[in-house]
Amino acid sequence: MSGTPPPIDRLAINLATVRQQWNLREAVEACGRHGITAIDPWRDQVATLGLAESVRVIKANGMRVSGYCRGGMFPAADDAGKQAAIDDNKRAIDEAAALEADCLVLVVGGLPHGSRDIDAARSMVANGVAAIVPHARACRVPLAIEPLHPMYAGDRACVNTLSQALDLADALGEGVGVAIDAYHVWWDPELKAQIARAGRAKKILAYHVCDWLVPTRDLLLDRGMMGDGVIDLHRIGSWIAQAGYGGPIEVEIFSKFDWWTRPGDEVLRTCIERYQTYCR
Amino acid sequence: MSGTPPPIDRLAINLATVRQQWNLREAVEACGRHGITAIDPWRDQVATLGLAESVRVIKANGMRVSGYCRGGMFPAADDAGKQAAIDDNKRAIDEAAALEADCLVLVVGGLPHGSRDIDAARSMVANGVAAIVPHARACRVPLAIEPLHPMYAGDRACVNTLSQALDLADALGEGVGVAIDAYHVWWDPELKAQIARAGRAKKILAYHVCDWLVPTRDLLLDRGMMGDGVIDLHRIGSWIAQAGYGGPIEVEIFSKFDWWTRPGDEVLRTCIERYQTYCR
Fold it and tell me: Is pLDDT above 60 for B190?
């Protein structure tokens, strides 16, 4: 019908995108008002509202939970630290199960404090994920290993390419896949081939979008709205589709200079417009 | 002999490290005072002093020129822009020849303004380097393709891994190699294998060091002094040595918050100490 906007049924909003404007309840209700049908909450947001009330609010608004952010952070300087991370990840799995999340997103962690041994950190990640796989399977919560941009290798995630994440997921088997965030992987010369590989293995559990700004003023909190940067989201989106992924397309923007300073409704309206222009 | 400091004959100073403190003449003379025997000047520094005088000062102080920074920046929105880049690179080759530089370092360039097509930019880079190879060979100036950290893919260099740089260098043949900067490649899961590959191909033309700070406060100008960050320079240095590279180890630090604010002599003393501790 002429004048009817394109559907937004595959659009999901990662609630970090509006975390400065709204708490979980407000954000979920706002997404509902805008016709958005899927959200990805963060653990601190759920903890603030309480798990039971978060579940209730999400269900009452008919929201799909496209993912739960986040588990991971496995490397630690000692065994007690590693065990604490495993225990905490098991709690995150329990919460994800209660929320009926499509997956638990894993930001795997960087170097333990004082370490320069990235190979050791990568081994700790492999061991850490392996340690939580049985609990995740028992709870039917898929684990989505998210490769992070190499600029986070030191402090956030030492899994930095899709190839690396898929090697891990392959080794761990059933119930472990990947979250592909265009922001983290757009530069990778192997991206097309690795997305195809992920599709063949049926390992794509989530697809996140935003944009890379030129210039980027902050390593963590200066992500751009789709269309404002240099990522070819059409092309990457087509590779994701060709790989057989038909799930939510999740907008995740940390933007201390821009989007976090605007009214939440304006942010959501813009997410919808840009999703329709760049991500379908 | 007890008490004798380890030799620093392989230490080179990239003059960007002290660009806020000294012009080329002052920097070269200061390096001489500190017993440093190799430097890598930037084109703007040479232009300010004049090429002939730069050559004279460098020779008068007995300095080896471990590299010349920099050529590259090949992608452009139109043919005129691409040709201008090629012409400018030929001039850079001429200057490098006059300076008797070990190589011309190529920072290949990112996306042309308004473009999101990184594959096209990568093709422009391959074509651009190919266009200057004959002149570089005629002038006996080796071209060192420097893969830059993926956080520069948008605006500075769309060659982002050593593997990619070596693929290019292999395709272009004689007279083209790579500059390996630990800052750009330390995170790469393939680093060890690709350094070995570069060594077998005798393509390592330069090795640069500094450190990755956690946190990093600026994408471009917050590099750390060796030892202040998380890069395992001992390990990477051992891979470089195993690959057969025995040339200069060049310190290149852009540091607007720290080292650019300190007296140049303190910076050079610290470079020497840290080189002796972390890079040999």
Answer: yes
Is residue A223 a contact partner of residue A17, using CB atoms and an 8 Å limit? no
Q: Is pLDDT above 90 for B268?
A: yes
Which residue has 């959501």 as its token pair? A268
**Mapping DSSP to helix (H, G, I), strand (E, B) and coil, where does residue A173 land?**
coil
Give the span between the Cα atoms of B209 and B224, in whole angstroms: 10
Closest Cβ opposite residue A230 in set B116, B188, B229:
B116
Rounded average pLDDT over B113-125: 97
The position carrying tokens 């100008």 is B221
Q: Check pLDDT > 70 for residue B6.
A: no
Cβ contacts of B230 on chain A, cutoff 8 Å: 111, 115-116, 118, 154
Contact: B231, A116; criterion CB under 8 Å: yes
> For A13, phi and psi rounded to 5 degrees?
-115, 120
Nearest Cβ partner for A219 among B154, B164, B219 = B219
Is the distance from CB of A46 to CB of A95 less than 8 angstroms?
yes
Q: pLDDT of A172-191, one tens digit each?
A: 999 999 999 999 999 999 99
- B189 and A160 within 8 Å at the Cβ level: the answer is yes
Closest CA to B255 of B231, B224, B209: B224
Residue-level length of chain B = 280
Question: Mind telling me how many Å the CA of B194 is from chain A's nearest CA?
Answer: 15
Contact A150 B150 (CB under 8 A): yes
pTM: 0.97
* Helix, strand or coil, per DSSP, at residue B113: coil
* Helices B118-138 and B79-98, axial angle in degrees (round to 10): 40
pLDDT digit string, tens, across residues A38-53: 999 999 999 999 999 9
